[in-house]
Amino acid sequence: MEEIRKFIEHITPMNTSDWEFFSSKLHKVELKKNTPLLKFGEIERHMYFISKGIVRYYIPLEETDLTFGFLFENEFVTGYDSFLTQTPSEYQIETLTNSVFWKISLEDLEAVYEKTDSGNIIGRKMAEKMFLIKSKRELALLSKTAEERYLDLFKDRPKLIKEIPLKYIASYIGVTPQALSRIRKRIT
Question: What fold, for 2-141?
Answer without folding.
Answer: Jelly Rolls (2.60.120)
